[in-house]
Amino acid sequence: MRGTQSVLILMALFSTGFAEGVVAQPGFDWKVVNNFPFFKTQGALDLYMQRAGSSIGEGESVTSTLDRSMPDDFLDQVRRVNQPADINAIFHNKAVKIEVTWSGGGSGRCVLRQIDANFSSTVACSDGRAELDAEVGQPWRVSLVAESGVLQGNLSGVVRDLTLVGIGDSYASGEGNPDRPAVNTVHLSGHMSESGAVNFSALSGFGWTKTYLPNTSAEWLDAKCNRSIYSYQVMSAAYIAAKNPKTLVRFAHWSCTGAEVFDGLLFPQGITPKVDSAGLSQAGIPSQLDQLVSALCKTQTGRKVIDLSPYEKYRSIDPKQRVRHYNAMACPTGNLKKPDAILLSVGGNDVHFGRVVMHVLAPAGGGPLWREGGLRVISPMSPGEASEALQNGWLRQRYDILDSVLLAQFGDITAPMPSVFQLNYPNPLLRETGYCRTQGSLGTDSLAEVFSANGSRGWNITELEAKNTTKLVIEPLQLAVRANAARPGWVIVDGHLDEFKKHGFCSPENQDARRVEYNFPEVRIAGGGKAQWRNITPEDWKPYAQTARWIRMPNDSYLTQFNHRLGRLLPDDRRFLGTAHPNSWGHASFAQATAQRISKQIQIPSYQQ
Fold this sequence. Notes:
This is SGNH/GDSL hydrolase family protein. It is globular and about 85 Å long. It is built from 16 helices and 23 strands. The chain has helices at about 40-50, 85-90, 170-175, 200-205, 210, 230-245, 290-295, 355-360, 385-390, 395-410, 445-450, 465-480, 495-500, 510-515, 555-560, 585-600; strands spanning about 10-15, 30, 95-105, 110-115, 120-125, 125-135, 140-145, 150-160, 160-170, 245-255, 275, 280, 300-305, 325-330, 340-345, 370, 375-380, 420-425, 430, 435, 490-495, 520-525, 530-535. By secondary structure, it is of the alpha+beta class.
């Protein structure tokens, strides 16, 4: 925290209130009804913590969960950041309901009264529950009085709120993990080719990937950004809400695949393909910080100028830093709901982390990959090229500017700057015994088939490639993130890094087990020309079932997030965007580390009656 660290306080004051003749003091307790309004109901939070967000508490093993998949209709229970009514319900609504429960209050009937409010109800003295109206920040009191007039007990408290927000790149958005994954129902004897006929020989091996489209396309919380509820940012906030039922946890996130410090966080994003229900859209994605300030502002926003001239010296190094002033979203004084914590993941795209990993996966000397027809869609970058952005200080300078803008937007003399919890990037190229190496095309069959990459299937990871990429890009990137711990208010989340070494591209260590985990549907032409599936069928794919590997390979991405409505409109790499991104287990490990740091840093009290 900048300045004095703010302490969130939960207050629950219990009075014995015993009068002569009262046999037992009832066991009072209370909680906020739906204390995580990012979801529309308390039941939605409970279900989420049983499935997607399970086993992320301190000391728990995230691998104890067998399947993190959510029901197809769960997306209907999630509020959207582009809907004003939903934003108001999340950040600005002060009216809440609390559930009061009691037990052991003796026999007979009692009257439950909410003092200073027009509420009373005749209830059983022994045990029961009631929902009462309350307001965030305002004290409330209830009493339980027997019909004889004898006070059985009373309870008072205050509902406090905690505001968490998420911004960042694809490691924060949930890329690779759509809310509703694609359903791949492929019938080899069917009629899914454009001509209405099936050429079985063309489907042999992995040829079916060029012909067939999923039966049901992937869907996202936000399709422009591939943002989903499987993001570690959602898991972290939901976990904190579940563990603090007397706190109203306000949360939303704007993280977006492809975002950089400049291109996405500070300025409108122009890298990620723009998609709407009609197909292609040229409209850009608004700056995440603009969206954040607009959501947190209680009234209509304007613009303000933030002076960036102190960073003018950086321009000769980084050509994107050409502005002397930042024209930011502004909220009138006193109308901004300041966040208690900002969850952040950014910097990987600034140094081309994804392109470097694709270079490791691609055939040696493969260069750009080309879709049939000559459209370039994936452009790998060598570790040596990417390392220049780290060696010449680009990333540190961008962090300097981001820190300055955050301070100008959220820091003032009336309240401390919110803590910034920055996630550090894991290294998917390590294993417990050294550097990763693979043989053959495990995990990349679909990518090799869809793209004409030198006519070769030499898709693998060599130990030398893994070592060079680690030394030239990944370790310097991790060091650049760790250096931000010296910034006032910044907290680096890296408690997941050691565990992730056991779950990278080369997990599991046993080769036979790895082949099973990397299984990809393959067509074999049997006797008489009959086509049959080998390994697994496309519909057997379970994107959120437990795996030893916590990182998506091209095959995973192809089967999980292909969108058949857009498949022939957009470059084919859209179905592969999930490659090199964490799966739901990877996000669970991030969430575990993040929730622990948040709970300790901002001292969310754990309430014990």
